[in-house]
Design a protein that fits this description.
One of its GO terms (molecular function) is serine-type peptidase activity. This protein has about 500 residues and is α/β, with parallel strands linked by helices. It is built from 18 helices and 16 strands. Strand 9 and strand 10 form a beta hairpin.
């Protein structure tokens, strides 16, 4: 017994020493010297500040020092992607500039930085900064830039933002990453920004000055010339003159049709809604459609990669839902809106565009379908909570429910939830909660299990569903659901639709 106790004590001592050594390695890097609280001045009268976090040093192998998951794609060898974008914003806006530095270097080895960043994020730590400005009182707008570490912003960004009273200020986030969107980090930025107004963020990868300029124009941070505004809505100069004349005469056309196609979709059409503003969309209309008989209608909303600032038709170029849907009904119009965010504004624009199609085209109102992937699912769930009466069925994949539940239950709108059990962005819990909430509302209505099963489907996929299809990432793997005949077949099923219509 004594021998066993002695061995246990030795093992505990060894373990404690290893923990101390590991902690020292991860959190006691060489101290950064020479940092100060001064900002790089922009225009003399500026009221904007660009702040960015950039890890000191360069990881071997050409990997971006700021984001170990991202290759350094900027044209300047000595600086990171995030710093490059920060300086683009300064150049375009005339803002002041400040570089956030932690008081100690992160380790140069990839795994060392990754491990430190993971522990900081998991424990919600706030690493100490080497220096920061004494006050941000003179600034109305704070641009905050960072790489994506473990799907969110580095914790040093929280250290900086929480160090000031941001009441009355506007925070504009931007991030750099080759493969992760900004959506997960937005919750963190809102949390650490206090009572500031936080605008929708922008993810930059392989983007030039013109792309950043276009983003700043869209969010109202950079003034546009009339010609730039015309180009943004897809008008040539001559078309713009015609449109301008039409506006002045009160005869503005509802739609500016796109002039290019991609895989039989007409891309970059613009619906000029009097209430919801200009709405960009791509549309597939079968050659057989002549308006003489009603066709089905399908709206598909993309994830982050498909938002309009990612480029014209980026939504249908990055996702296959609109193309795979054609296999289920050759008499179906397919609309892929390109919106600017995942909130209320985009939801209202989706509704306005849908109402336009219902009014202007001969649509079978018993066959109006919707789906949303990732952030598009967040928006489309808001749409469903507002106007479930417009739809026959809804498919939500790899997302979370942000809309109201009661209107959906009152309308008895069929909903299919599909997500990976270990979805890297959302996890499966929000989807499970949405399903349980709707089912509870149906139970209050007195529906039987069989009736509820016709209205609600919860499909949480195990990891091997994705690996068997050569996909390791479960969130990005949500795009595989477009090829799943069971999932897509449910959405476009005439039998399910007829059964539900009888129950309404």
């Amino acid at each position: 017994m004594k021998k066993w106790k002695k061995r246990a004590v030795i093992e505990l001592i060894v373990l404690a020493v290893l923990v101390v050594l590991m902690s020292w390695y991860l959190f006691m890097g060489r101290r950064i010297t020479g940092a100060d609280d001064k900002v790089v001045s922009g225009d003399e009268e500026t009221h904007s500040l660009v702040v960015y976090f950039s890890r000191e040093g360069v990881v071997s192998g050409g990997v971006d020092a700021v984001s170990p998951a991202s290759l350094n794609s900027n044209p300047y060898e000595a600086i990171s992607d995030t710093e490059t974008v920060a300086k683009m914003i300064q150049q375009l806006t005339g803002a002041d500039l400040f570089h956030i530095r932690t008081d100690r270097y992160y380790r140069s080895a990839f795994w060392g930085t990754a491990a430190t960043a993971w522990i900081e994020e998991a424990l919600n730590l706030r690493p100490k900064l080497a220096a920061k400005p004494e006050s941000l009182d003179k600034y109305d707008v704070i641009y905050i830039g960072y790489p994506i570490w473990w799907f969110t912003a580095p914790m040093a960004v929280g250290t900086f933002l929480e160090g000031y009273d941001l009441t009355g200020k506007t925070v504009v986030p931007f991030c750099t990453s080759t493969d992760s969107g900004i959506d997960v980090s937005m919750d963190y930025i809102r949390e650490v920004s206090g009572s500031a107004t936080v605008l929708d963020g922008y993810r930059v990868h392989n983007s030039g000055l013109e792309d950043v300029s276009a983003w700043l124009e869209r969010i109202g941070m950079l003034e546009q010339t009339d010609e730039q505004q015309d180009i943004e809505v897809g008008l040539t100069k001559s078309e713009a003159d015609i449109a301008d004349a039409a506006l002045k005469s009160g005869e503005c056309p509802d739609v500016t049709e796109g002039t290019e196609t991609y895989r039989n979709f007409v891309i970059d059409n613009v619906y000029h809604s009097a209430d919801a503003g200009d709405i960009h969309y791509n549309v597939y209309i079968p050659e057989s459609y002549d308006g003489s008989r009603p066709y089905a209608l399908y709206f598909t909303l993309p994830g982050y990669e498909g938002l309009y600032f990612q480029g014209v038709a980026a939504n249908i170029k990055s996702e296959e839902f609109g193309f795979e849907a054609q296999k289920y009904n050759d008499e179906m119009i397919i609309v892929a809106p390109q919106l600017n965010d995942w909130g209320e504004t985009s939801a209202d624009q989706t509704i306005a565009l849908l109402e336009y199609f219902l009014e202007e085209y001969n649509i079978d109102r018993s066959k109006v379908y919707g789906n949303g992937f990732s952030g598009g699912g967040e928006t489309m769930s808001i749409v469903m909570g507002k106007r479930p009466d417009l739809f026959t069925a809804y498919l939500q994949v790899s997302s979370q429910w942000d809309g109201a539940y009661e209107p959906v239950a009152e309308q008895r709108l069929p909903v299919y939830f599909a997500i990976g059990r270990n979805d890297e962005y959302y996890g499966a819990e929000p989807t499970q909660r949405a399903y349980d909430t709707l089912r509870a509302l149906y139970e209050k209505q007195g529906l039987s299990d069989d009736e509820m099963d016709k209205l609600l489907v919860l499909d949480i996929k195990k990891h091997d569903y994705f690996t068997e299809r050569n996909m390791s990432n479960e969130h990005g793997g949500g795009g595989l659901f477009a090829y799943d005949e069971e999932i897509m077949g449910w959405l476009f099923s005439d039998e399910r639709g007829a059964a539900v219509q009888e129950g309404r």
